[in-house]
Amino acid sequence: MKKIFTLPILLRLILVFVLASTVINCTSEKFKESTDETLNITEFLKANEEYSSFLEILEITDYASFMNTYGTYTLFLPDNDAVAALLSDMGVSSLSDIPVDELQDLTKLHILEQTIKTTEFTDGKIAAPSLQGQFLITGASNKNGTSSITVNKTSNIISSNIEVGNGVIHVLDKVLRVADKTLAQTLDSDTSLTLFTEAVKATGWYDKLNLPVTYNTDSIPSYLTVIAQTNEAFADSGLNTLEDLKTRYSHLGDPLNPKDSLNLFVAYRILPGLNYLADLAVTPAVITKAPLEVITVKLALDTLLLNEETFNGVLEKGVALDRDKSDITASNGALHLVNENFFIKKRLPAPVYFDVADQPEFRQLSSVFRTPGAPGVYLKNSELSLVSWPDSQSLGYIAAAIGSSSQLDRAWHGDVIDLNRFRQGHLNPMTFTSPVIIKGQYKVWVSYRVNERSSAAAQVSVDGVALPRLINFREYGNTDLPERVLESQGYKRHIEPSTNRFNCRLMGIINIETTGTHNITLEAIQDSSNGNTWIDVIEFRPIDMDQLYPKFEAGGDGLIFE
Predict the structure, then answer these.
(1) Residue-by-residue DSSP string for 483-525
(2) What are the DSSP calls for 55-101, one per residue?
């Protein structure tokens, strides 16, 4: 360095010029390479002749310019052979023979508004819906010793994770088709479900399963989910005809009567809402169309079991959902199959561990939801279907980076709901819709990450009934007292390994009078918060259950038993 400064002025100027030229040339070359390598989706299709047919679809539907703009998209891209096979299946000679509105629906089915690589796929529903509104289902297949990823059980991914300037592309060997049959029509078309379909018709449910999707005043769609039984499953129980079903189940002799046992038999297999296997796997119990009756769901390894319970130390085996034949999308819902007969089961109070951060809208953000260190997401009241509050402030979701100094990563699942300045007139009161809670008496616990600037006094209500104790979100957890002594004082250490940065407060006992979802309201009653309030889990534990165990795995998904 010293020698350079002793060079003549002219030589120094020459060196500066040469260095600057080198930097400019390098920068220009890098920019050029980056531009070449990051074509947006439409330009990528133009540059690759084997995808010219789908490019033509984009141009016909006016999506070509849209897919050339900035964004974070995922395109499931059928190659030319796949599009040619589509034309053959439809009996047309060119894309111009297909109505534009059908092509638009087909196009939107192949596009997601998030960048999702195959490493984020699960065996089941992709969290984000397609632009068309229907969800895509991924899985794995093995044919002739070759493994591949399937989409909607019909198409194989033949090339994946092609990065483009505005997202990622997965190439398909077959065009995805929009589900245009209703649940009723889907049942009718399956020859293995003829007896179940007869029962659906005899009880009047067929007409309800044949209705298009509508939206109520809260913009909630009328999707339904059906759990159907095969003819073989009925036969194994000695049921081969509709008359057999009426003899065993129709105690009033009138299947159209909602109180008739055969009507309830069918209603018990119909769930409100759009529930794919991925949704059921994280739902301990689901409401059915049989009044006040629920089905419990348990994940055992890779199998979903319905109504498997242990009563008085005796295991009552559950019924397994047929994974390979389930997750069938209909225009108005989803269809699953079971291979065993089952009926309404008497329910006893069961624990509910409500991870308040697990909201459907956050779950759909696959690049954020339970992704350690992902940027926090904040949504308005109108953007969340199961949470409400009176003002225009935003509710946050945080999945903390592993080992973060805030220790938010120690929460169950490593995520929390973030209420920034939760106080009177600000995000207050905050009301959550709970998962299904079975009728009974429960102790209610609320756990949180301590913040000395958060609300010092808040009240919890269930369905408008205020619980007797207040919660102070500034109060640190006790790590010294014996656990049973701590429990007697209305506190516990809910995560393992524990930390005083998290605390769990017993709010009181509530009598849940009806089985179903319920409103849980948190209301700050002091105007002193000037920081974040981070809530982890709200627990409903039957009063005769151990209140300390199981605990939650700090930063993980598991439960820890004594």
Answers:
(1) HHHHHHTTEE--EES--TTEEEEEEEEEEE-SSB--EEEEEE-
(2) HHHHHHTT-TTGGGSSS-EEEEEE-HHHHHHHHHHHT-SSGGGS-HH
Strand arrangement of the beta sheet that strand 430-433 belongs to:
387-388, 430-433, 519-524, 458-462, 465-471
Euclidean distance between CA atoms 409 and 373, whole angstroms: 9
Between β-strands 146-151 and 314-316, what pairing exists: parallel, antiparallel or unpaired?
A: unpaired
How many whole angstroms separate alpha carbon 159 and alpha carbon 116? Answer: 14
Q: Are 111 and 178 in contact (CB under 8 A)?
A: no
394 touches 378 (CB < 8 A): yes
Q: Could you read off the pLDDT of 494-523 as tens digits, one per residue?
A: 999 999 999 999 999 999 988 888 999 999
CA–CA gap between residue 280 and residue 269 (Å, rounded): 14
Map residue 473 onto helix, strand or coil.
Answer: coil
User: Is residue 2 very low, low, confident or very high in pLDDT (cuts 50, 70, 90)?
Assistant: very low
pLDDT in tens, 166-182: 999 999 999 999 999 99
Question: Mapping DSSP to helix (H, G, I), strand (E, B) and coil, where does residue 34 land?
Answer: helix
